[in-house]
Amino acid sequence: MKVVNFDETPSLVSQYMAELRSVNVQNDMLRFRRNLERIGEIMAYEISKTVAYKDVDIETPLAVAKCKEIGEDIVLATIFRAGIPFHKGFLDYFDHAQNAFVSAYRKYKEKENFDVFIEYIASPKLDGKTLIIADPMLATGASMELSYRALLTKGTPAKIHVASVIASKVAIDYIKKTFPEDKTTIWVGAIDDEINSHSYIVPGLGDAGDLAYGIKE
Fold first, then answer.
1. What radius of gyration, in Å, describes the C-alpha atoms of the chain?
2. CB half-sphere exposure, 119, CA atoms < 13 A
3. I need a labelling partner for 32 at 20 to 30 A (CA). Which of 13, 23, 121, 153 fits?
4. pLDDT tens figures, 147-186
5. By C-alpha distance, which of 142, 52, 56 is closest to 106?
6. Distance of alpha carbon 207 from alpha carbon 217, whole angstroms
7. pTM of the predicted model as reported, rounded to 2 decimal places
């Protein structure tokens, strides 16, 4: 399974990642959301280089031009709520894509133990399509896997792209074990070494949902 780590090649993603992590910048929710969008846009552009294209004849005011259009059916999926601005970055570039949404949340049994529950799913048919699942924080990989399993009730995609802003090494290994190796690619802005006892990524950036939309009760 291929893992594309943007942190290995400095780019604009590095600048946006620094701002997302910074406690001195995080109090600006608009900027935080926009930086998630920007990273989504850049990842979308890079993923666009991997999809198939078809030749088309396009009529201009003067003649017919030989052009190329995306030749795959793409479905953009995200996990509520932190995934919404990240998802928007992908949708800004793959603007003809269909969309899927999953609500996954942690339900704590004890202070440090939790189960992940899927409460809502809305998705088109996925058979033979290219599925891009965007979730900014990949801590354990459990929410991503359960969301993927829920999406499989809508069909089997031909290709899968797992996109995250920050992932832990534990989560990367988990995705490698639970997703189809021959048709999955992982795209990540950075991979951090640790998760703490609450399953938060360290150093990470905190709770992306709270930073994007305000602290939840």
1. 18
2. 10
3. 121
4. 999 999 999 999 999 999 999 999 999 999 999 999 999 9
5. 142
6. 13
7. 0.92
Amino acid at 105: Y
Residue 179: phi and psi, rounded to 5, are -105, 155
Q: For residues 3 and 57, what is the distance between their CA atoms, to the nearest angstrom?
A: 35
